[in-house]
Amino acid sequence: MKILIDAFGGDHSPEEVIAGTVSAMEENKNFTAVFVGKKDVIENLLEGYAYDKARVEIIHAPDVITCEEEPTVAIRRKPESSICVAFKELKENPEASAFVSAGSTGAVLVGATLKLGRISGISRPALCPLMPTAIDGKNVIMMDSGANADCKSINLLQFALMGTAYAEAVGVKNPKVGLLSNGTEKEKGNALNHEVYPMLENAKGINFVGNIEGRDILAGDVDIVVTDGFSGNVAVKSIEGAIKMLLKVMKTEIKSTFKGKIGGLLLKSTFKKLAKKLDYNNHGGALFVGVNKPVIKAHGSSKRAAIKAAVLQAVAYANFDIADRIKEKLSLQEQGGEQV
Amino acid sequence: MKILIDAFGGDHSPEEVIAGTVSAMEENKNFTAVFVGKKDVIENLLEGYAYDKARVEIIHAPDVITCEEEPTVAIRRKPESSICVAFKELKENPEASAFVSAGSTGAVLVGATLKLGRISGISRPALCPLMPTAIDGKNVIMMDSGANADCKSINLLQFALMGTAYAEAVGVKNPKVGLLSNGTEKEKGNALNHEVYPMLENAKGINFVGNIEGRDILAGDVDIVVTDGFSGNVAVKSIEGAIKMLLKVMKTEIKSTFKGKIGGLLLKSTFKKLAKKLDYNNHGGALFVGVNKPVIKAHGSSKRAAIKAAVLQAVAYANFDIADRIKEKLSLQEQGGEQV
């Protein structure tokens, strides 16, 4: 199994990308790492590591797409960029199983959609981070977290189907789907929610449990949160900001008294562990669900640990047949006479 | 100055509402408390307190609207409810300066709009909590946090004008307005955002600073966050849930080691202070901005401290001429030839 890695994506690329990938290779022996990017630079950096040379390949790509570039334009104008070259390989080589990039989110999404292609029947793929919840070891999938700012009800229905396929693939039994809304009652929601609610109730192969509010996202009661990419992005980032703010304010408060300082010292390792646990970027990347092969978008600020997690996630997902599971969910609806 | 208080609104009414109001009267001597609700019950409860009888009035209202009732139906069918009676008094009595309720949010909003009335020119009033930010003593106003699930660009423009008037009234100089979006770049956003962005750029009397992301809401960089009531509700509640989750997970982590337990004991008062500081419900209620007099919606779970804060907030706001300031902002736009 070959995992393609964008060696020139992310704030700390290529150094940290290569370091993290080598580290992932040590932990999992069942894949070949295919670095995509400037060959000489990658070769030079690899010289600093001891690794199994038979398990590393390099595909040369002289160009790089930056985060400042308009994604659609960049994908069109830079066919020799690491992202475009990787997607071409992913599409054409049956051995290429998944792709990991910490580069421009927009370019990865546009590239995946245009070059790798959507799963037949899926109109809009979604970018789906796994977020740790209050229940230890339990994650929640946010569908969509920003790939589609404007959605129609059919998109949200497909997010529910894809999210269920994804959750089942990672081992969740009968995963619960919640519709993000401004209240738990069925009557709550905006026009989009009102339209999709009965569609979710009638859909086959999903376990729809009704509306959930922002405050319930992390409670661990549902496995999949369905919403448009605008609201999903607002939710994910609001959570990120709240945790960051709380830890910051806490630090200041702790330092303001002598008793607090001592307590803070004793809890230092606990806080560190916690901050790491709650930072979803440490749990690998966000899966771009709805394209033909697994595409993992790691955070732009990823260092080696985050890259390692994302590569190991890609190896795992390559075995999960998520695309096939999604096709199965879609076919269930067609049998029911619904147009999806 | 008379402050109307819904004695029969909230999970802990009427007991905690009366206790909190009496406590507010002790702190501020410049208002008369007008309780609206079942007269005999209120009188009986008041007997347990020492207070200036000349500063208390009761307006009898035999009916109560519960949170389970559909707001529009309840407002129409229960003219003798505490909410309806209070809004009638607020509209007709020039001495009645503001209204505080911890009752059904929907009924308070519908009642305020239908019975008290919107400020001329404002198409949609907004429910606006003040949220504490990472900067000590600095709050951010969320406009709208749930009154209007579906919004047009004109509504968002008016939220920006009203939010600026509100922030200026509470003493913020040249308050910064941010548009909530899924990215900071101007190009980011959904169709609604794209439509309103240039309107905000061209509006007079506001200090529009561009897009802000969910993660920046609590950073303290902007004073007003403008968004539709659906996304605003998602943001506010996601923040609430994240803080709740973090404190919960922290508690578990702290208790899991001996060192942690000792540290936790030393930090107990710090955590308590922090939880209180970050809970925006302790900072008074959310102002329903855009109706003719100040209407403060306290949280349904408010106990005496929260009610006290909301009553004191109502007294302060009654002096702020927020409605006049909003009219002024509107007139600025009309002079500029824009249709608002």
Describe the overall structure:
Two copies of one chain form a homodimer. Chain A is α/β, with parallel strands linked by helices. In chain A, 46% of the residues lie in helices and 16% in strands. The first copy, chain A, is built from twelve helices and twelve strands. Chain A has a seven-stranded mixed β-sheet with strand order 3-2-1-4-12-11-5, sandwiched between helices. Chain A has a five-stranded mixed β-sheet with strand order 6-7-10-8-9, sandwiched between helices. In chain A, helix 4 (82-92) packs parallel to helix 5 and helix 6 packs across helix 7 (191-202). The first copy, chain A, is globular and about 60 Å long. Chains A and B meet through helix 8, helix 9 and helix 10 of A and helix 8, helix 9 and helix 10 of B.
